[in-house]
Please model this.
Amino acid sequence: MRTKKEDYLPTGADVLVDTLIEWGVDLIFGLPGDGINGIMESLRQRQKKIRFVQVRHEEAAAFMACGYAKYTGKLGVCLATSGPGGIHLLNGLYDAKLDGQPVLAITGHHFHDLIDTSAQQDVDLDRVFMDVALYTTRVMGPEHVANVAHIACRTALSRRGVAHINFPVDLQSKECVKKARSERNIPGHNADLFARRAGLPDEEALRHAAAILNAGEKIVLLAGRGALRAREELIELAEKLGGVIVKPLLGKACVPDDSPYTTGGIGLLGTRPSQEAIEDCDTLFMIGTSFPYIEFLPKPGRAKGIQLDIDSARIGLRYPIEVGLVGDAQRTLQRLLPMVRRNKDRSFLEKAQRGMKEWWELMDEQGTRRDKPMKPQVLAHEIGRYLSDDAIVSCDSGTVATWFARHIKARNGQMYSLSGTLATMANGLPYTIAAQLAYPGRQCVAFVGDGAFSMLMAEFSTAVKYKLPIKVFVVKNNTLGMIKWEQMVFLGNPEFACDLQPIDFAAYARACGGAGIVIDDPKLCGDAVAKALSTPGPVLVEAIVDPFEPPMPPKIQAKQAVKFAKALARGEPKRMKIATTILEDKVRELV
Ligand SMILES: Cc1ncc(C[n+]2csc(CCOP(=O)(O)OP(=O)(O)O)c2C)c(N)n1
Ligand SMILES: [Mg+2]
Model:
């Protein structure tokens, strides 16, 4: 045993963890296993500098890394053991890949000299991760670690995606010895430095874009996640152009919902004024968005297109644009603004504002209904009212995303996210845990479906373990609601295999050591939401809602109505209840 400090030789794992620390990583999400024991030991010894957060399922660790990256702009890091542990990470890593988030995944591998011998947990994760990762490599020895770790961190950050290091377990604990280095592997030739791009398009492209904007009369600014830090510039541009800001869901917080320049969301869970603005516009300016539902964009050629994106590979991805601006949204808009003239014709904007007035009246009507069973919109409406100005709200895929999109009004200073492009379930709770770890003083809220929550519900105990005062609203309709409606409305089929066996979520939360509250009365909902938000510690609210409330599209297409009628006629088991709920909603919209 060595005693003198100068005799200390770092292990391969020490080098990895020290490199992460050099890159400013202070949080790592994961679950131990015998394939990563060496890394765990290095983390144990460095607890003051880097915190390990233990999850119950590695998928959650990857979601946490992705959510952490989304909410902080920093590198998210997750760690899993060899074989099954690494495989569990995949869904969360695809979430990061598809939403362009910098995430580093570290996995263990078998003893280096047993790899590819059908040994236990002998899965070549560096090959498994080839599609999801921009950079995936296998460590060949402790002297290799610094080289690959620097590249992995830099690649994830600069190319905004997933990097992966697969680390054979024996090499993790092996000490670095000078003579083991190959002669050309001279130490000290790396830098833990990430240089940001200035991010500005060239002058000519800017002038071209300004000319198109100045010639346009009905301009839509489609502002996604890349526009989140360009709030003032977006508003100034909309004001000058008499244009309308339409927000794909990842851009929900780019301007507050009460801004007179926005018509809110787009797509199936968007607003009617957004859809009308898109249908009517002559110019479409896409800013930091790769909104994937192209059927909701103007028909090709109907509007002149401009696109601004940090990644030139995304320019022209969704629309036949005439000019592409490659750059940072905020800085590019700052350059563009002086080139843009004020549009005197305000009629396009004013029409959208009239539409929004009606839209909000409809949303308020839906959000303040007092009938039982409680409408899910009522819960979302009350959450929106009582959230604090610094709230960070995460959602899952499902009908819940519709209520989240329409009824929780984003305010200045808040943050909102969900799995945008992968549209996975179960990310909402891990995102919220990551948000709370990143911002201990802020209000972190999950708004999730019962189906999605139950996929990774064990992570509620992670919040209890780490004393994270998250607030989780589980929208309990005892069904995979979104799919039920899709089967009926898109395909004309009666619903099949969507019912969920009810779970007493509030009791579960208490069993985990948190608080569990049930809300089922719309009259008491506001008070209960306020109480839940102010209850210290982790709180789960089980909100029992009407399973028959449909997530209506902003405008129903005739073919959807026909399919829906067919589904009811073909023996939809709950057709009477469904038909009356929809009829009732429709009548309320009209009166
Ligand atoms: C991992 C995953 N599995 C399946 C789906 C397909 N899917 C999308 S929404 C949904 C239902 C969600 O149900 P729930 O969480 O209860 O929310 P609700 O629709 O009832 O509001 C399903 C199964 C998905 N998006 N992701
Ligand atoms: Mg559900």
In short: The two ends are 83 Å apart (CA to CA).
